[in-house]
Structure formats: structure tokens, C-alpha cells
Amino acid sequence: MDARVLELGTLAAYVEHETERWRQWFEAAPAEVLDLPLGRGADGTIRTLVKHIFAVELRYAQRLAGSPVSGYEQLADDTVEQLWRIHRTASSVRGRYLEGATAEALNRVLVSETRKLGRIESRAHTVLVHSLIHGIRHWAQIAMVLREHGHGGLWEHDWLLNPAVQ
């Protein structure tokens, strides 16, 4: 197995642990929290940003696996369960890809037609890393929006403290 796969597996475990904690938090929170606006200069709500995080995970996992890419508009986002279903599907596809990933597979160039950036050519390894760290960045945005609306007291998100990577 390529050493990069082991590192990516560790990063994926961190993401999975954090994402599960977010699911638990949103399940316990009032439903309207998902519809909080992201703030000045930002488009959308927490719901649209969570959907964006998970859609990126799913669509890149599908590209890595050589599967048809889901249409963004077809992904249901009415409930916490529907949103996290997108993530679970993405995680499953990504996990199967990682299980069989070889150095050759990780170096393969993927061509992606993205919604906002157009055509992108990247190595599979780069796509994997992006699909994992992309969400980390956006979850930090969500945490800040929640704090601004009085929903503090979230857990520590640091890599060093995550039990999935110990």
C-alpha cells in the first residue's frame, strides 16, 4: 500500500470523527439553526454550506472512483438526515477508493468540470487531499457563524485532540 494512502486514511478518520460530532450537534439543535445566514459578504445559510461541503466530498469521490457524478441540484438537503446521507455516501465511495489505491492510481490525472471553477486537471492524490481539507475550512466558518448567533461551547476541533488520529 502506498504510504500516502495511510496518511490520507488518517486524515479521513479525523474528518469522519469531526463530521459525526457535527451531526450530533445539529440533531440536538433547533432545526432553524441550519437556516442561519452565513453573514455579510457571504451567500447562503449554514444549510447551503453543509450541502456544499458534502457535495464536494461526494462529487470528488465519484470522480476518483470513475463513477457518474451526482447532480448538485439532485442532492436533498431538507433535513439533517438528508444532508448527512450525502456525506455517508461520499465517505463510502472514498473509503472503497482508498482501500484499493495504488501509487499509480494516486498519480492519475483527473479532469473535472466544476460548477464554479470550470475545467480542472489534478492528480488523484491532490483531489483526495482537497476533498478532505475543504470541509475542515468550511466547518470553521460554520463554527464562527454559530458563535456569532449565541451557539458557543462547541468541542475542540484540533487535530492533536482528535481520538481518531491518536
From TrEMBL:
GO terms for molecular function: metal ion binding. The keyword Amino-acid biosynthesis does not apply. Gene3D superfamilies: dinb family like domain (1.20.120.450). A divalent metal cation binds at residues 52, 134, 138. Keywords: Metal-binding. The keyword Secreted does not apply. It comes from the Bacteria. Belongs to the DinB family. This is Putative damage-inducible protein DinB.
